[in-house]
Amino acid sequence: MLSVRGLRKQFGGLAAIDEVDLHIPRGCIYGVIGPNGAGKTTFFNLLSGIFSPTLGEIRLNGQPIQGRKPHEIAKLGVGRTFQIVRPFSELTVLQNVLAAIGAREGTDFLRGLRRYDRSGYLEAARECLRQAGIEAHEKELAKNLPLGLLRRLEIARALGLKPRLLLLDESFSGLSQKEIQSQIDLVRRLRAQGVTVLLIEHNIPVATELCEWLAVLDGGHKIAEGPPETVVNDPVVIEAYLGRSDDA
Amino acid sequence: MLGDYQLTVLTLMGVWMIVAQGLNVLTGYAGLFNLGICMYMGAGAYISALLTTQYAFSFWEALPWALAGSGLIGFLAGLPSLRAREDSLAVMSIGLVFVFESLLIYLPYFGGPVGIGKIPVPVVYGEPVSKLGYLFLVIGAVVLVGISVRCLVRSWIGLAWESLREDELAAGMLGTYPPRFKLYAYVIGATYAGLGGVLYAHFINYITPYDFGFLPSIYVLVMVVFGGVGTIRGALFGAALLTALPEIFRFVQDYRNLIYGGLLVLMMFFEPKGLLGNDSRLWRSVTTLGSFFRAHLRKTVA
Amino acid sequence: MSTGILAQQLVNALSLGAVYAMIAVGLAMIYGVLRILHIAHAVIYAAGAYLGLYFYGLAGNFVLALIGAMVVAGILGGAIERFVYRPMLAKPRIVILIASIGLLVCMSDLFRILAGPHQLPFDVPALQTRYGWEGAQASGVDLYIWIGTALVFAALWLFLQRTRMGFAIRAVAQDLETAQAMGINANQCVFAVFVVGSAIAAFGGVMVAVLYNAVYTTMGDMVAYKGLALIVIGGFGSMTGAAIASFILGITETIVTTYTQIPLSRDGIAMLLLVLLILVRPQGLLGKS
What is the pTM of this model? Predict the structure, then answer.
């Protein structure tokens, strides 16, 4: 589904991402972990078009997407959540998701003039809310929501894109045990519907429980990859984490 | 029944309501901060004035050209603003309105600082429109503008605008291409303001470059901010009140800037969203009263 | 074009640039610590001119009047920060911007009410002596401007680089939260920046008033907008950038006005240049993207 070859991102003299190769098969739940500063968020920013790589290529189903703008990549079916949530504060929960649907619907000026509160669109938006488990809050303004619900709103919004690939950026941080469990169930449900999930996670237990395959980044390099049990016990990985005082 | 004076005030209220809606679309909904909205008003006014005085167009013939012209200027002004972030945007809009005003003053084609006079009153079925008739024309325009803004706000374009206003990066990540929608806002907002300009020009029958500079733009900003940013009712209310205020209280005219400036500051302290904005105390009381009445009605009817 | 005229233009350009720099550097400092466009700065500039005129009338001594104007303007600027901006810091930034515009409009009118709508002369005979040679003359005012600007910038540099308060201010400009975590009283720093910036603006206002022998209610307007544009071009919080941009504007404005036939007023040309510069480099001369 997603293949990354020779990816390199240089900021001045620093290579935040250096020669990374990854292949993410369709329908997988794939995790990217690594100590702080390993380049995980930079990696996501490269995938979602916020940065363009210095070198290397990123292919989505064979199509090169490196260097494309974020909205183009979104239109290709890649949804992304942010580590620090970015909701549309003054809009309702429902409107937040509708905004994602709108990107598909309002493709030219005339189509853009149509009302968005038609039942078809509303249902589609509610479906996304249901999948994320926040349909009860549809009329609330996003700015009034607590963090746990906001994280699910991020996901619901990304679902509005009908994504084939979902990038989850640290979406488990700051959640209670109960919330983490419902989030894990949510991700599993999404995979069951055919969405490929790529997640960055700081929380190793969650990553090992949820992901089928893990890649470990350290200092911009991929230092290990494989099924969770193997990776977690890999001495190279352990050293990368313990070598710096980490709070993982 | 309605004296000449009242007709004048009401007509001007309508004109400013239309311009305020233009600013509302641009700044209130799309979040593109603009301190020079009267530039587009001036575009509409001057185009129509020139066409009707120099080239013997009729009001109705000139109207589409004036609207298209102000929309075009909105587009041209919007293009460079796409690259600007929030603060640069504010500064750029000030710069543009100044350059615009300057051009009007210094190019003799536009009549120079004296402006253009003897702008004809529109003619309907061979008869020049009366003051009352013109008021109806303006009211019609206000209603049209109000309806169209409402449609826009409820459309995908309106939703895209609001999402861009809230968080441009997040909106982009959802597939909304910011430049496209920003330009829509510029063109549409400018066209509304241009319409206001046309109606102004053919009512006062005399325009100067100073009518469309920085200070008038600030007055419109006060209207929108005072009434309620990002709401249709806010723009209407703010425009109506602030046009009528100097007429009701004569002293306001002498101290206009002092009062309007002070009003802006006070509003920012107490009700930054505007008196009728979504979160304001006044609006919330109105909506609570409204739902209370509706519940009461339901009980009495049942 | 004889060198004489060019030299004269250079004299004018330098004075113009210096005055712009007085405004822009203060604005840049303020933007640096608070991240706001202090449009109301224009009012401080004009207030300085009015105050200078008033004190000069009282004391008959220009230097005293200048100092008096700077002190009072500084206090005025500090008051704006303390009582208008500070309570609004928690709200979205646009709120402060609008409040600043409100202050600009409101206080300009206040000048009109207090001092009358007419332009007032500000004649200081002691500064009227002209130096130099035919075609390239600088008046006492020009010298005051140049020397004053150099002194002010030197003092500012020393203040920021060599004093504790200056260090604190630079820390706040970099990262307010971290600075506070280090025990720095950010409120005090911001207040100080406003006081200093306003005093400098008042200096500019007085000098311009004497240079053109005119004090009027709207004298701050154009300078306010130019100042804002200058800090944008200079790279937002960058004081050096703002100063450089100011001198560039002073020179360009003078040259373009003298030697070309663009159908715009002097100010219109300046605004056009600024708009073009912002377009060409939205992040400013010394700014980062």
Answer: 0.88
CA A236, A237, A238, A239 torsion: positive or negative? positive
| C residues 205-234 lying closer than 8 A (beta carbon) to B | 221, 225, 228-229, 232
Closest residue in B to C38 (Cα) is B87
The verdict on a CB contact (< 8 Å) between B167 and A80 is no
**Nearest chain C residue (CA) to B166:** C92
Contact assessment for residue B43 and residue B221, using Cβ atoms and an 8 Å cutoff: no
C130-133/C136-139 β-pairing? antiparallel
> What ipTM is given for this predicted complex?
0.85
Of the candidates A55, A56, A126, the one whose C-alpha atom is nearest the C-alpha of residue A93 is: A126
pLDDT tens-digit profile of A90-109?
899 999 999 998 888 777 78
**Which fold would CATH assign to domain C3-280?**
ABC transporter involved in vitamin B12 uptake, BtuC (1.10.3470)
Using CB atoms and an 8 Å cut-off, which of residues 29-68 of chain B contact chain A? none
- Residue A94: which CATH number? 3.40.50.300
- Nearest beta carbon to residue C264 from set B33, B85, B103: B103
pLDDT in tens, C211-235: 888 888 888 888 888 888 888 888 8
Tens of pLDDT, residues C135-177: 677 787 888 888 889 998 999 889 888 888 888 888 888 888 8
Domains held by chain A: number: 1
Over the stretch A28-79, which tens digit does the pLDDT of each residue have?
899 988 887 778 888 888 888 888 888 888 888 888 888 888 888 888 888 8
| CB of A82 less than 8 A from some CB of B | yes
Contacts B83 to C, Cβ<8 Å = 279, 282
Chain B partners of C274 at a C-beta cutoff of 8 Å?
A: 95
Q: Determine, for residues B173 and A71 on separate chains, whether the beta-carbon distance falls below 8 Å.
A: yes
Tell me what the mean pLDDT of segment B40-56 comes to.
93
Q: Quickly list DSSP for chain C.
A: --HHHHHHHHHHHHHHHHHHHHHHHHHHHHHHHH----TTHHHHHHHHHHHHHHHHHHH--HHHHHHHHHHHHHHHHHHHIIIIIGGGTTS-HHHHHHHHHHHHHHHHHHHHHHH-SS-B----GGG--EEEETTEEEEHHHHHHHHHHHHHHHHHHHHHHHSHHHHHHHHHHH-HHHHHHTT--HHHHHHHHHHHHHHHHHHHHHHHHHHHT-B-TTHHHHHHHHHHHHHHHHTTT-HHHHHHHHHHHHHHHHHHHHH---SS-HHHHHHHHHHHHHHH-TT-SS---
Q: What is the mean pLDDT of residues C85-92?
A: 88
Does residue A248 lie in a domain region? no
Question: What is the structure's pLDDT at B163?
Answer: 93
The yes/no answer on whether domain B4-270 falls in CATH 1.10.3470.10 is yes
